[in-house]
Structures are given as structure tokens and as C-alpha cells.
Amino acid sequence: MFLFPYLREKSMQPKLDYEINFYRNHSIEDISKYQLIKFNELWQGIQKNVPYFKKIVEDDELPKQIKGWADFQKIPINSRSYIKGKVGDFTDHSKKPDSWISTGGSTGNPLNFPSWKEESSYCEPSLWFARTFYNIKRSDRMFRLWGHSHVLGTGLTKYKKVIQFKIGHPLIGFKRFSAYDLSEKQLKIAGEEILKFKPEYIIGYSKALQLLAMANIDKKEEFNNLNIKAVIGAAEGFDKESDRNYIGQIFGCPVGLEYASMETKLLAHTDPDESYKVIWRNNLVECVDDEGNPAKEGRILVTSLYPRAFPLVRYELGDLISGALKSENSVYAFSRVIGRDNDFLMLDENTPIHSEGITHAIKFSDKINAYQIRYTFEKIYTIYLKSNSKLTEHDFAEIRSRLNKVDYRLSDLNIKQVDSLKQTIAGKTKWLIEE
Asked: According to the CATH classification, is domain 1-84+113-342 in 3.40.50.12780?
């Protein structure tokens, strides 16, 4: 073990031990009671410092003390689309944010929200706790098939990030490979890099991992000889369970799934028995039907249980889950996520571009509220941008410059500003849609 990975593991170990003991010492029956107590502690600050909740408590629409599930379920359900134009009303104003974070995903409708630096102290131990399900340690070498949004920026910030990724990550045993270009040629290069790097685990966009395995089937025996602990898919699900099994065969290890979002950080993680375990110390998860009633299959709602600049209270992520297991109304495990389908933009029959490559190139601008790419049967693509202000030629040029860094052909796409974006029959605004 090299020095820096060892020091990282050693510094995390006390927090990880606490996390492990916490879950070990609480039964299923304890979960709901613990969470309502914890939420009430936070609720006292939220109703004072978050304008939206302050008003509805002052108007006597919500109690100052949540005495049980009946009280908790009086709190309105709020979606990303509703909050998007009123983030200030949902922000804790007791102190200034340390940073602003932007969501990505398949909707092309990013949300910018504030964050405090100390929030990571609650989230990171939970991440490493979840990875112990696969015997992964913080000092283990990781190969990450992921987006490279830092290379799309400009100025000093870009160069700081480049230094971090090129120098900092290798020092702690991380190797990152771009998932923007998922052509067979690039994925074969990724396969060679894996054999050279000899990682103990691999993480990537789930569908990118499927393509990686398919492109490197000839390396199956060599991959199996690496004794990789696990391959973890993230940001989206697999199209079918056989895809997950296929990846496991090629790499010779279990294949897990991480369920997270920019708003929630890690929310749930599979373990080797393949069910999702909710990180319920940090998140109170509900599963409700279309009318908002508790259900075993339905919409997922999240309430954060640690101090946040942007506290989530019955926040609807936009995904559906099934097979929910509950402690009263609190979900502690579930079988499947329905949703999270990040499609590929096919530049040609051999070059799929992952949705995050497009999102990272466009969402940098505060002017852009949402975007959508529409394509014809002949695969002619047009980017449509929604903004509250008129976009200038400079704005378009900056987007083209960033798209060029993902793939030079993307910079030639038509870009138009529009007042509204097309929706599916189900009322969703997908990032990629056929004309």
C-alpha cells in the first residue's frame, strides 16, 4: 500500500467504524423512530431559516413539532421542476453557501442549488460504508469510467482541476478514463488501461460499463486474473439484468449499483444479494403512489437528515422504485429503480456520446435553464436551449467550444434558443427526443 492511499484509509477509519456500528446496533424497528427524532431536530432550524417552510409554519399549515407520520405527511411534496425557479425560498439562509452545485441527468433540466462544505463530512463515511458491502477499502485502486467536465472549462479553475486529476488522483490510486466517447476504439484503449493499472474495483456509468465489457470480451481471461472486487454501475440502471450478469462474467466479479443524485449524494447501494440498501442514517426515503399515499411501488421522496444549505424535505427525485421494504412509512430497502435512463447520442453507428458529455458542456452557463436535443430519422441533430434572457453569439460560441472538446462533430450541430421544450406523452422533458 502506498503512503497517500494508506493515510486516506487511516483518516477515514474512525468515521467508518462509527458508521458500521451505527447500522449494526439499530434494528429495522428502530429506523422510523430514529428518523423522526432526527428530522425534528433539523425541523426547528428549517422552519426559521428556510423561507418556504417558515411561511407555511407561520400560517399554521404545518406544526412546529412533528409528532408522528400523520404530521410528517402534511408537509407538501416538492419536485425539482417546482423548486427550480425558487431555489432561494428553499435555501437555509442562516449562513452563506460555500459553493453552488448543478444537477445533470437525462432531463436536460439542471437545477443549481447551494451547498456547505461540511455536508461532505456526513456523506463520505456513508459512501465507504456502502462499499464495504463488496469489501472495497478507501486505499483500494479505482478505475473510473466517467465524465471529464473539468476539461471543458476555461481559466484558472480548469487548470486547478486538471492538476487535481492528473497529479492528485494518481497519488491516491485513482485512474479516470473519459466516458464521453464510447466508441469501440476508445473502449479498447480503456481495456488496455485497466490491465496496466490493475484496479481493485471499477466504477462507471452503467451503460458505459456494458459497452466496455462488450468491446473487451477478448480480455475476459486477463480481467478475471486481476481479481477485481467489484464493478459498480452509477448514474443510471442497466437495460436488463442479463447486462449486469454479462459484465460480471467479463470481469469475473460481482456487479453492483450505486443510486445517487447530485441533490442527495449517495442514497442507496446494492449489496451482493442485489437488493438496494437505503443509507437511512442520512436520508428518510418514502415510496408513494400518484396521490401521495404510501406504496410498495411508486414515486421516491427524499428528506435529508443532516444540516444542509439546501435541505431536502419530501423532495421528489423523479424516479420510481419497486419492492419497497419499510419501517412504518420509511423505506430501508427496495428491489429496483425504475427510471434513470440516460440515452446515447449516436454521432455515427460506432460513436455513442453519453448524455453527461452534453450536459457538462451546456450546464456551465447560469443563463441556460434547460436544454433538449431533437433528431430526425436521418440523425440530423439540433440543440434547443431555454433561457430567461436572450443568448448572445458569445454564449453560443462558448457552448460550441465546450462541445468541441467532447467531440469535434458536436460543435457543428445547430443551436437554437426557444421559449419551451417538447415533452413526452407522460409529460417529461427528455434531453434527447426524436422529431
From this structure: yes
Q: What is the pLDDT of residues 132-181, one digit of tens each?
A: 999 999 999 999 998 755 444 555 555 555 555 555 566 667 899 988 78
Cβ atoms within 10 A of the Cβ of 207, count?
24
**Residue 41 to residues 35, 125, 279: CA-CA distances in angstroms?**
10, 21, 19
Domain boundaries, the chain: 1-84+113-342, 365-434
Terminal-residue alpha carbon distance, the chain: 54
Same fold, 1-84+113-342 and 365-434: no
DSSP state of 340: -
User: With 0-12 CB in 10 A as exposed, 13-18 as middle and 19+ as buried, what is 65?
Assistant: exposed
Q: Which residue has the cell 421516491?
A: 300
How far, in Å, CA of 202 to CA of 71, rounded? Answer: 43
Q: Regarding the domain delimited by 365-434, which CATH topology (the fold level of the hierarchy) does it fall under?
A: GMP Synthetase; Chain A, domain 3 (3.30.300)
Q: Are 230 and 199 in contact (CB under 8 A)?
A: no
Q: Are strands 230-234 and 255-261 parallel, antiparallel or unpaired?
A: parallel
CA-based angle 369:374:378, to the nearest 5?
Answer: 160
Torsion of CA 73, 24, 233, 248, to 10 degrees: -140
The residue count of the chain comes to 435
Q: Which amino acid is at 277?
A: K
Q: Is the pLDDT of residue 423 over 70?
A: no
